[in-house]
Design goal:
It is a single chain. The protein is built from twelve helices and 16 strands. Helix 2 crosses helix 10. The longest helix has 16 residues, at about 195-210. The chain folds into two domains: about 5-210, TIM Barrel, CATH 3.20.20; about 210-320, 2,3-Dihydroxybiphenyl 1,2-Dioxygenase, domain 1 (Roll), CATH 3.10.180.10. The strands form three sheets. Strands 10-11-12-9-13-16-15-14 form an eight-stranded mixed beta sheet. It has a six-stranded parallel beta sheet with strand order 5-4-3-2-1-8, sandwiched between helices. A two-stranded parallel ribbon has the order 6-7. It has helices spanning about 5-10, 25-35, 50-60, 70-80, 95-100, 115-120, 135-150, 165-170, 185-190, 195-210, 225-235, 275-285, and strands spanning about 10-15, 40, 65, 85-90, 105-110, 125-130, 155, 180, 210-220, 240-245, 245-250, 255, 265-270, 290-295, 300-305, 315-320. The protein is of the alpha/beta class. About 40% of the residues lie in helices and about 25% in strands.
């Protein structure tokens, strides 16, 4: 998995301002405790370069980028320090050209068609959208995506995003990831409130993934048994029955299979904003995915089971 794919699967990019380089590793470990394995360390302070060095040395599982890159000199210095990707507030052709020639991932800031055209001329399709709140947020990204969809443009909005408005971005196909300082606040780093950083990052991941129980599946051995069971629910609660090829639905929350499938008792379906991101975070927690069960719509995975059972139930993810 390359760096851009990792960023997309993680889906959140903490923009981290380090005042004291000694705090950088503690901040990184606080994010890792939430299974958020990425940080964009900005060059807004003199501690930025040393902070990158410290995190790269102490936290090999952390994907580390350098943000607020305004010059080629600072870009080279950040890469020499170990930065794995470069982020700039605007698009500087000198910086972008050097990064492209040296196979360094760069996500320049682009908020206009002209800037996007410039990015595309360098082969760049993932761009930062900053400041997102000033330039129209998700609606602006959607409008820009229209003419550039065929070119593969996607955005990383940063600036003005928080846990309250994160759901607006979380399920959009044109949003590669979302970044911001709210994921790792400077004040919390300075005051060593690292437990609070972990807690806030966990909340953001929950919002990003948007897990919801979609339906419960009940295993039956035959089509007749499935329809009979559905009829009992209909008789008791007047739930409508919708007959299908492999199962019958009772209301939208109970699926009754016509043949026994995964799960001793049946299965649970859990909806998510992004199956690819859900897979990433579940794997970080030690869960395994049964890719042999994956279902697709075109190139996009829309359902897949986890390996094992939860209290006798198999569990599958379902794309919202």
């Amino acid at each position: 998995m390359n760096v851009l794919e990792q960023i997309g699967n993680i889906g959140l990019v903490p923009v981290v301002v380090i005042e004291n380089a000694e705090d950088a590793v503690l901040a990184a470990k606080a994010l890792l405790d939430a299974h958020l394995g990425i940080m964009e360390i900005t060059m807004r302070t003199a501690a930025g370069i040393q902070a990158i060095k410290n995190v790269r040395a102490a936290c090999p599982n952390m994907l580390v980028g350098a943000g607020t890159i305004l010059s080629l000199e600072k870009c080279k210095e950040a890469v020499d320090a170990g930065a794995q990707f470069i982020v700039s507030p605007g698009i500087n052709p000198v910086i972008v050209e050097w990064c492209v020639k040296n196979d360094i991932v760069v996500t320049p800031g682009c908020v206009t068609p002209t800037e996007i055209d410039t990015a595309l001329s360098f082969g760049i399709r993932i761009v930062k959208f900053f400041p997102a709140d000033v330039y129209g947020g998700v609606n602006a990204c959607n409008a820009l995506y229209g003419p550039y969809k065929s070119a593969g443009i996607k955005f990383i909005p940063t600036g003005g995003v928080n846990n309250d408005n994160l759901p607006e971005f979380a399920d959009k196909p044109f949003i590669h990831a979302v970044g911001g300082g709210w994921l790792c606040k400077t004040s919390d780093i300075t005051n060593h409130n690292f437990a609070l950083i972990t807690e806030n990052a966990k909340k953001a991941i929950d919002v990003l993934l948007g897990f919801e129980v979609a339906h419960v599946g009940i295993n039956q051995d035959t089509p007749e048994a499935s329809l009979s069971t559905a009829g009992v629910f209909n008789k008791a609660f007047n739930f409508p029955i919708k007959e299908g090829n492999s199962s019958n639905m009772v209301s939208s929350f109970i699926e009754i299979t016509k043949t026994k499938y995964l799960g001793t008792c049946g299965h649970l379906a859990v909806k998510t904003n992004s199956i690819s991101r859900a897979i990433y975070y579940l794997q970080q927690k030690g869960f395994e995915i049964d890719l042999a069960t994956a279902k697709y719509k075109g190139d996009n995975m829309i359902a897949v089971y986890l390996k094992g059972e939860f209290g006798g139930f198999a569990v599958h993810l379902l794309q919202k």
